């Protein structure tokens, strides 16, 4: 499948209707983006059962999608599986790095990951510890 430009209106439905969706945030003026896009498009051709979306940060309608993910760096690739964001990779990748990411996302058991996250969130915070790691006295 070729890459598909995503819009704010179509994004939620697109993610819902595709078990695995990759989205690359990019801009034409960005050298790293221009280097990564052929890798991304090649992967889209090799993995026709997956959706590979694009969001050009220079197009207002597509730029708004980046707000969902707190985008700070381009290119950035986001992987969504079964409606959950499972990977967020800022910066470009080599062919092998992106192939590894695709393999890992395919293999990921989302329900187990969601359960593990819920268990971690249910654990009480350690009293007297702040984010910097210093103990309060």
Task: Describe the protein in words.
Its main location: endoplasmic reticulum. With 137 residues, the protein is α/β, with parallel strands linked by helices. The chain has a single domain (4-122), classed as Glutaredoxin (3-Layer(aba) Sandwich). 42% of the residues lie in helices and 20% in strands. It has helices at 11-17, 31-46, 60-63, 66-69, 95-107, 110-122, and strands at residues 4-5, 20-26, 51-56, 76-81, 84-90. It has a 5-stranded mixed β-sheet. β2 (20-26), α2 and β3 form a beta-alpha-beta unit. The termini are far apart.
Layout of helices and strands:
Blueprint: E1 4-5, H1 11-17, E2 20-26, H2 31-46, E3 51-56, H3 60-63, H4 66-69, E4 76-81, E5 84-90, H5 95-107, H6 110-122
Parallel strand pairs: 1-3, 2-3
Antiparallel strand pairs: 2-4, 4-5
Q: Fraction of residues in helices?
A: 40-55%
- Give the name of the CATH architecture: 3-Layer(aba) Sandwich
Strand content: 15-25%
Low-confidence stretches: 131-137
Average pLDDT metric: 83
What structural class do you assign from the helix and strand content? Answer: alpha/beta
**What is the fold named in CATH at topology level?**
Glutaredoxin
In CATH terms, the superfamily is: Glutaredoxin
How would you write the strand order of the largest sheet?
1-3-2-4-5
Enumerate how many helices there are, as a single number.
Answer: 6
The string of secondary-structure elements, in order, is EHEHEHHEEHH
What form results from the Cα inertia axes?
Answer: globular
Number of structural domains: 1
Q: Sheet bearing the most strands, described?
A: 5 strands, mixed
| End-to-end gap | 59 Å
The number of distinct β-strands equals 5
Keywords: Disulfide bond, Electron transport, Endoplasmic reticulum, Membrane, Redox-active center, Signal, Transmembrane, Transmembrane helix, Transport
GO molecular function, one term: disulfide oxidoreductase activity
Membrane topology: Single-pass membrane protein
Main location: endoplasmic reticulum
């Amino acid at each position: 499948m070729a890459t598909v430009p995503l819009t704010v209106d179509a994004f939620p439905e697109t993610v819902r209707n595709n078990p695995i969706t990759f989205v690359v945030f990019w801009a034409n003026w960005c050298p790293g983006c221009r280097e990564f896009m052929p890798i991304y498009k090649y992967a889209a051709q090799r993995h026709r059962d997956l959706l590979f979306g694009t969001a050009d940060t220079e197009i207002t309608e597509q730029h708004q999608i980046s707000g969902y993910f707190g985008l700070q760096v381009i290119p950035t690739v986001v992987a969504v599986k079964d409606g959950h964001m499972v990977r967020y990779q800022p910066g470009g990748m080599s062919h092998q790095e992106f192939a590894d990411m695709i393999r890992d996302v395919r293999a990921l058991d989302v329900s187990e990951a969601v359960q593990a996250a819920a268990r971690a969130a249910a654990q009480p915070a350690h009293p007297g510890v702040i984010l910097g790691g210093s103990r309060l006295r």
